[in-house]
Amino acid sequence: MTDLLLSEAEKMFIIHGVQDNLRVDGRSCDDYRHIELETDVVSSANGSARLKLSQTDVLVGVKADLTTPPTDNPDVGTLEFFVDCSANAAPTFEGRGGEDLARDISSTLARAYSSDRCSSSMLKALCVVPSEQCWVLYIDILILECGGSLYDAVSIAVKAALSSTKVPVVKVTSSDGGKPELELSDDPYDSLRINVKHAPCNVTLSKIGHSHVVDASLEEEVCSLASLMMAVTEEGTVTMLKKSACGSLHPESIYEMLETGKNVGLNLNKQLTRQLLDEECLHTQMGTNREPKGFL
Amino acid sequence: MLTSMLTSITIYLNAMPLDRMRIPGPEDSKPPFVYETPSGVDVSNLVKTNGCRKDGRKADHIRPMFIKCGIISQAQGSVYIEFNNTKVICGVYGPREFGKREDFSMNGRLTCDFKFATFSCKQRRQHQQDAEEKELSQLLLQSLSPAVCLHKFPKAQVDIYVIILENDGSALSAAVTCGSLALADAGIEMYDMVVACSARKYFNSILLDPTAAEEIVPMKTNESVDEGEMTVAYMPSLNQVSGLILKGEMHTQVCAQIMKSCLEGCNLIYPVLQQSLITSIRKSLSNVDLQGSKEL
């Protein structure tokens, strides 16, 4: 990510502020920055979302395609995560520079979505003909700007994009003897929606001094030595837990962070679900007349 | 004419990506492991009624291990570790100057390379690193780097190569333990040794150091919450957790519980590592003595 140089005095200022539960931008330790989210921004994708978390800007597009299911799980569809760190966001991403970060984000997401309940609620519906045809959802994540808390922003955007994804309904007509034939529904509004009830949101807790903060800005990320990433579902269960950055943590502080992360994650999921419902209502009311805000 | 044709054929064959040594089956055939009941499904008898696991261990027992330091003469430090059937070999090279194109850095650099040998798992692995191995390399690096005094070797790098010769579960934790011991064997200055241990939550019990049969298989286990597997990398004398990764879904209290058992496991392994390091140093010192007396 972008290299940010902070002087010792600036770092101390941030660390002392965090100790008193007051951060540079006036937030408390458990607060997120202002989140702007819009779904269905890309008309050519099956589902999409754009999320702006202060200076972090992420665009997610979901494309559906038919393939043969994996041999060891013949009755489910699959999710493929692909992250593109564009050189627009940081000059260090140029060429193959962003590859490591991109791989890390996609493997973190894949891990978070690999829990059994999540995959059975989402992926079972994506099966068309067991061991013959299934839907694969290509989830492409474009990083437009990095301003801290990239993993959190990406995971929220992915959940929003998945909830707005419309997969065409396919009817299976078995022709006698031969392979089953697939028939696409004539009605373009006849579509399958993805159940995102068990989809998790990522919460990153950065250890700064003796306390920890959620949604660290770039400056705060420089001050933090180690952070704990957790993917929290709507029910408060954890589907992914990972220590990131090159520092270590005391076991006791991990236990504390787990509790904070759970509460923050629960709240985040609740807010997101409500906003997505509102957005859905807006879409149905306005229909095609809705003017997407997009990048205006 | 004939010879030129023959050479062209051989060149053509060499250019083919297919593995000619294998007998390909019919096009729609599936590998046999798809049909065998995966060990993950057979959850009823991971723990027998008398509280013993399949290999006779109690839930909180780790497998017997064998450690040997200094087995690669060319490497600065090297270790072979065996946890029953999980066999890992690790070589450490460096500190050596890093490539000319790299920028100057006051801190040394650590690189990790994690590889499953092609024959190490049930399914054959490819020669090239796949996505899972790349992710595990990253995790290995994040677990080991907090322990190394990187400021002691500016503008130099240390390379850690880990190969899993045989994978019978807990490969990552074995790799971390092996890597840190190899670093110590290489004489790289460290704050503490890193010990890693895995545990799997299985109904009401926590199985320490799971074998491949006890490891969690995604999509094959029943859809319950609080099923999962955690690997913790820990520095016992500093009481710091340097690496943490979770697979599965569980509540935060259960997370903390599993972490505690992992830490207990780490504390069991730590004295063994110290012992083997002392043995290897004693041996090398006695070798020096022998050589010295010969010269006299």
TrEMBL record, chain A:
Chief location: cytoplasm
Entry keyword set: Cytoplasm, Exosome
Claim: Cell membrane is one of the keywords in the record: no
Subcellular location: Cytoplasm; Nucleus, Nucleolus
Pfam families reported in the protein's UniProt record: RNase_PH, RNase_PH_C
CDD domains linked: RNase_PH_RRP42
InterPro entries listed in its UniProt record: ExoRNase_PH_dom1, ExoRNase_PH_dom2, ExoRNase_PH_dom2_sf, Exosome_comp_Rrp42_subfam, PNPase/RNase_PH_dom_sf, Ribosomal_Su5_D2-typ_SF
Domain of life: Eukaryota
Sequence ranges assigned to domain Exoribonuclease phosphorolytic in this UniProt record: 32-168, 198-263
Family statement drawn from the similarity comment of this UniProt entry: Belongs to the RNase PH family.
Name of this protein: Ribosomal RNA-processing protein 42
Organism field: Priapulus caudatus (Priapulid worm)
Gene: LOC106808205
TrEMBL record, chain B:
Keywords: Cytoplasm, Exosome, Nucleus, RNA-binding, rRNA processing
Annotated Exoribonuclease phosphorolytic domain residues: 62-189
Cross-referenced InterPro entries: ExoRNase_PH_dom1 (IPR001247), ExoRNase_PH_dom2_sf (IPR036345), PNPase/RNase_PH_dom_sf (IPR027408), Ribosomal_Su5_D2-typ_SF (IPR020568), RNase_PH (IPR050080)
Alphabetized Gene3D superfamilies for the sequence: GHMP Kinase, N-terminal domain
Major localization class: cytoplasm
Locations listed in the record: Cytoplasm; Nucleus
Keyword rRNA processing listed: yes
CDD domains (alphabetical): RNase_PH_MTR3
Coiled coil residues, start to end: none
Similarity comment: family membership: Belongs to the RNase PH family.
Family annotation (PANTHER family): EXOSOME COMPLEX COMPONENT, EXOSOME COMPLEX COMPONENT MTR3
Protein name: Exosome complex component MTR3-like
Organism: Priapulus caudatus (Priapulid worm)
